[in-house]
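User: Just a sanity check before I run the rest of the batch. Below are the structure tokens for the first item. I only need the designed sequence back.
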């Protein structure tokens, strides 16, 4: 009887254990079901949130497109993301704040100049035109500078050649007029012949070498005549006009002057204004200006010939 009681108890214990295990399993299933239900609720809430966020994001993007002509999708695509996809770290509040800042900056800039593109194109064309003109002027300036250099080089060469010829002629004619002595002309600045001055030094027979300003009037006049004929001899012209060039000369020097004049008359024609009788005697044709009536001039011409023996 005791054994049967123990068996009965053991049977109940086993039944209790099985029931308890089954209950625990059911409770676990119940808890799992509750968790699943909670997850489903959370999932539904998250889906609702996602829809709200998407709508808010779309509204912001639409506002950016309409108000600011700004396409966020293009920016996202330029950053290597799929066009139209929202970045994972996108925050609507931050985007709205950024949009407000951009709006304020645009308002500070002012109204949009609708003709700015046309004006830019016009200014660009003007700039290109002026640029071409500047390049042309620069090229012309370079060519002109080259031409000026060539002209200056040629002028220096010709001037130097002419000066050397005049220098030789001057020394020769001076010695002929003074019947001796010496004279020379030289440049004050040989390195710049086109802008240099000319100095004259002369040494009449029996005198020391002097600057032309230290000579007497007659000596200075003969020296100047020597230079004049030296230039004329270097490049003769059809005629030469002289106005009272013999005024400072005495009779002896007048004879020297007229002798030189006759010698050069073989090369050219000389027209000389003079009051000196000796110079008049050397002329081939003599023209006199008289005033028989007040305010009325009269020209009298005399052709000078060989003297007739008496």
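Assistant: Here's the designed sequence for the first item:
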């Amino acid at each position: 009887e005791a054994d049967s009681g123990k068996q009965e108890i053991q049977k109940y214990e086993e039944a209790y254990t099985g029931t308890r295990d089954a209950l625990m399993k059911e409770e676990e299933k119940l808890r799992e079901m509750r968790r699943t239900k909670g997850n489903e609720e959370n999932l539904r809430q998250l889906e609702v949130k996602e829809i709200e966020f998407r709508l808010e994001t779309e509204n912001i993007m639409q506002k950016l497109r309409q108000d600011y002509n700004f396409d966020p999708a293009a920016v996202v695509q330029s950053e290597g993301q799929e066009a139209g996809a929202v970045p994972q770290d996108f925050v609507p509040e931050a985007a709205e704040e950024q949009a407000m800042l951009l709006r304020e900056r645009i308002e500070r800039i002012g109204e949009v100049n609708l003709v700015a593109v046309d004006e830019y194109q016009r200014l660009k064309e003007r700039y290109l035109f002026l640029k071409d003109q500047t390049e042309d002027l620069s090229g012309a300036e370079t060519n002109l500078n080259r031409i000026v250099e060539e002209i200056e080089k040629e002028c220096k060469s010709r001037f130097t050649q002419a000066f050397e010829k005049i220098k030789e002629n001057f020394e020769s004619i001076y010695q002929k007029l003074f019947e001796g002595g010496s004279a020379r002309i030289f440049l004050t600045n040989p390195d710049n012949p086109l802008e240099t001055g000319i100095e004259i030094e002369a040494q009449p027979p029996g005198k020391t070498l002097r600057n032309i300003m230290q000579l007497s009037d007659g000596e200075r006049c003969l020296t100047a005549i020597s230079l004049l004929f030296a230039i004329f001899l270097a490049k003769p012209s059809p005629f030469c006009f002289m106005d009272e060039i013999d005024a400072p000369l005495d009779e002896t020097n007048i004879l020297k002057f007229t002798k030189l004049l006759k010698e050069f008359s073989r090369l050219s024609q000389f027209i000389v204004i003079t009051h000196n009788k000796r110079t008049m005697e050397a002329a081939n044709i003599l023209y006199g200006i008289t005033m028989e009536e007040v305010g009325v001039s009269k020209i009298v011409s005399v052709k000078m010939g060989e003297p007739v023996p008496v």
